[in-house]
Amino acid sequence: MKSLFLALVALAVATPCFAQEPVGCDKFKWPLDQERAMLMGDTPAVASGTSLKPTLPVSVVVSLKPFADAKLPMAPERAPKSPDSFAGFVEVAAPPKAGIYKVSLSAAAWVDVVQAGKLLKSDNFSGALGCDGIRKSVKFDLAAQPFTIQLSAVQADSIRIAITGD
Predict the structure, then answer these.
(1) Which distant-in-sequence residues (6+ apart) come within 8 Å of 75 by Cβ?
(2) Distance CA 8, CA 94 (A)
(3) pLDDT tens readout for residues 15-25
(4) What is the pTM of this model?
(5) Strand, helix or coil at 151?
(6) I want to staple 36 with a disulfide (CB 3.0 to 4.6 A). Which of 19, 49, 79, 134 is the partner?
(7) How far apart are CA 61 and CA 58, in angstroms?
(8) What is the predicted pLDDT for the residue at 96?
(9) What's the Cα-to-Cα distance from 50 to each of 78, 88, 115, 128, rounded to whole Å?
(10) Which residues contact 35 (CB under 8 A, 6 or more apart)?
(11) What is the pLDDT of residues 101-121, one digit of tens each?
């Protein structure tokens, strides 16, 4: 009886660790209507390693490679759990001014931003399940200089990304 009680207490303590992500388009921490529309719209496809020279905001479909073949400019901050995952990167022209920018993704993935040869820490992130077209959005504080977006731990060979101001 005592071991059953201890098992129930352990389960009760561990349950919050297994909490699911929020479900629904209204569960993101900030509005993402523009990004969702961009990700679901007519978006050009680019190969991993492409240099984008657009005016922000912009969205593209990035063709990815198996992680082992992706040749990311820097090792991701978090290594993929699955060796069968995909990865890739795009180089982006300098934003018009320094500030907070969002990188929003159509599917689950790890996103790193590299600027001036360093991995940037994200300012914030938000994710939700069950929202058609968008899965995650991450904010980065960027200088007005070129940067690279690295994508890893992707379960498909392509992913849609949108880059917008805050």
Answers:
(1) none
(2) 54
(3) 344 457 788 88
(4) 0.84
(5) strand
(6) 134
(7) 11
(8) 92
(9) 23, 10, 16, 28
(10) 59, 102, 104, 134, 137, 162, 164
(11) 999 999 999 999 999 999 999
